Amino acid sequence: AQSVTQPDIHITVSEGASLELRCNYSYGATPYLFWYVQSPGQGLQLLLKYFSGDTLVQGIKGFEAEFKRSQSSFNLRKPSVHWSDAAEYFCAVGAGNTDKLIFGTGTRLQVFP
Amino acid sequence: EAEVAQSPRYKITEKSQAVAFWCDPISGHATLYWYRQILGQGPELLVQFQDESVVDDSQLPKDRFSAERLKGVDSTLKIQPAELGDSAMYLCASSPRGQGGTEAFFGQGTRLTVV
C-alpha cells in the first residue's frame, strides 16, 4: 500500500539558516510527489510537484526538492529560511490514476529571529 | 485567481446534531475531493467525485457521513449525527480531471468542533 513518512515532527531553525525537510514514500510505480504548506487554520498551498523528468524541481517561495528513486525520498530544501516560512509542511504521493493524495503526518517548522 | 470556495469556515455543533459543509470547486474542474484532517495529522481522503459520480468513498463512514455532487459542480458533505471524534478540519479540493498527473487545489477548509 502507498504511504508517506515524514520522520521529523517538529523542526526549529534560525532565520537565514538552511532547511531540509525529509520525506520518504512507499509506492510501487513511478510516483507523483508533492509538497504542500499549511499556515494555522488555513488550507493547503502547493509548493512544488514532481511528475517526471528532471529530479530536482523548483517551487514557489524559493523552495526546491529532489526526487531520489534509489532512496524513495523527496526531501524539501531552502537555502535561507525567512520568518514567514513558519508553518506545517506536508509531503504527499499521488496514488494511481485518480490523483488521490496520500499525505504524511507533517513537519511543523518554527523559525527563530 | 480561481479558488475553491468552502463554507462555513468554522462550525460548532453539539453531539448528535446534523451538520453540513459546502464546497464550490474551481470552474471546469471535473474532480472534487473531500479530505478530513484531524489535529496533528495529515489530511485523509473521505470521498472523491468524478463529475457527479463517486470514484472512491472507501474511507467515508457511511453510517453517518454522506456526500453528494448532484450536478457535477458544487458539493455538500453531511454528518448526521455528529460525534465528538468528528472534530477536525474538512478540506475540499478540486483538480481538472483526476486521472493521474494533475495537481489538486485546496480550499480554506471548514473547522468543525463537536461539543
What does this structure look like?
The complex is a heterodimer of chains A (113) and B (115). With 113 residues, chain A is mostly beta strands. Chain A has strands at 3-5, 10-14, 19-21, 24-26, 32-38, 44-50, 56-58, 64-68, 73-78, 87-95, 100-103, 107-112. Chain A has no helices and 12 strands. Chain A is globular. Chain B has 115 residues and is an all-beta fold. In chain B, the strands form 2 sheets. In chain B, strands 2, 4, 5, 6, 9, 10 and 11 form a 7-stranded mixed sheet that branches. In chain B, strands 1-3-8-7 form a 4-stranded antiparallel sheet, with no helix packed on it. The A-B interface holds A 4, 32, 34, 36, 41-46, 49, 51, 90, 92, 94, 96-101, 103-106 and B 4, 6, 31, 33, 35, 40-45, 48, 55-56, 91, 93, 95, 97-109, 111.
How would you summarize what this structure contains?
With 113 residues, chain A is mostly beta strands. Helices cover 0% and strands 54% of the residues of chain A.
Features of the shown structure:
heterodimer, A: 113 residues, mainly beta, six-stranded mixed beta sheet, four-stranded antiparallel beta sheet, 0% helix, globular, B: 115 residues, seven-stranded mixed beta sheet
Task: Spell out the blueprint of helices and strands.
The complex is a heterodimer of chains A (113) and B (115).
Chain A: E1 3-5, E2 10-14, E3 19-21, E4 24-26, E5 32-38, E6 44-50, E7 56-58, E8 64-68, E9 73-78, E10 87-95, E11 100-103, E12 107-112
Parallel strand pairs in A: 2-12
Antiparallel strand pairs in A: 1-4, 3-9, 5-6, 5-10, 7-8, 8-9, 10-11, 10-12
Chain B: E1 5-7, E2 10-13, E3 19-24, E4 31-37, E5 44-50, E6 53-56, E7 65-68, E8 75-79, E9 88-95, E10 105-106, E11 110-114
Parallel strand pairs in B: 2-11
Antiparallel strand pairs in B: 1-3, 3-8, 4-5, 4-9, 5-6, 7-8, 9-10, 9-11
